[in-house]
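Incident review: delayed structure delivery

Summary: a single-chain prediction request sat in the queue longer than the usual turnaround. Root cause was a stuck worker, restarted by the on-call engineer. No data loss occurred. The affected request and its eventual output are reproduced below so the record is complete for anyone auditing the incident later.

Affected input:
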Amino acid sequence: MPDLVVNVYRNDLIESKHYIDIAVVDIYGNNVYNNFAGEIITFWRSAAKPFQALPIIYSGAAEKYGFTDCEVAIITASHSGQDVHTETVKSILKKIDLDTSSLKCGIHSPLHRPTASSIRQQGLKPEAVHNNCSGKHSGLLTLCQYYGWSSGDYLNPEHPVQRMIKGIISEITEYPEDEIYLGEDGCGVPVFGLPLRNMALAYAHLSNPKTMDGKYQEAADKITSCMENNPLLVAGEDRFNTELMEVTGNKLVAKSGAEGVFCIGVHGKLGLAIKVRDGNNRAVPPAIIEILSKLEILDKEEKEALAKYHYPLVLNNLEHNVGKMVPVLGREE
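Output delivered after worker restart:
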């Protein structure tokens, strides 16, 4: 049974339903939302990126190469490929004495439509640096350079950088390393499958680094600070992830993942993870705002500022309002 349903109306008829599972835990790992969804195993996708960035900080690599807060933020990002994103990734690569040809993330058009349109109009083609995961890949390459590891095969699950990260994921999520499912993410790196509850627990730790192992505390604090103070770098213009952090200030740290995964750490309080069962990301914003509202995380002003995401309109190709999306918290068949 799902914890939340997002109903999609066309006029006054429900045309589609998105079923959503929720896990919410406090900083001690206790269930805040009484449900069984936390045991559902799924892939963490890009919501794992803040944890993949941890060794770049605690190893001393970020300090050695003089990374700015914006550069740390882009390493955690699923960015839109705007100029501010691509230039920040290029800056990281320059500092570690590599260039964009070292990126193994593949190529897709920028998620930012005006940027994609500009590239086409100039007769150019997107590059790997436009890939929404190029920041993460520049971080992986940073670790390769710092430790003297090979950089041509850093996607390999048996590469030292990937073995390191898998161990970190196990520690932070408190989930046995040999039980983590491995797959290949959209950008080619290993992706981790584990219970939703453990994802939420990791974000509870991230939002309260004192609950983490000592070697991670300063790094986690740095990463959350960089993300919260540079939300545009974490996603981009007109992106829910960015606007959620802009509106809430330093109250929470949030990160999206593909296939309807979204995770939040609320400072000093809890961790939240959701999974849209059918993988449709359009259901994420209304679901998240509904949950945060019910948990009384958002105040009145924040809810008003994010209202367009709570009950988003359904528009057709003529920009006519033909319906809306309505989240319903509860166990609906």
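Verification: The first strand starts at residue 4 and ends at 10.
Action items: add queue-age alerting; document worker restart procedure.
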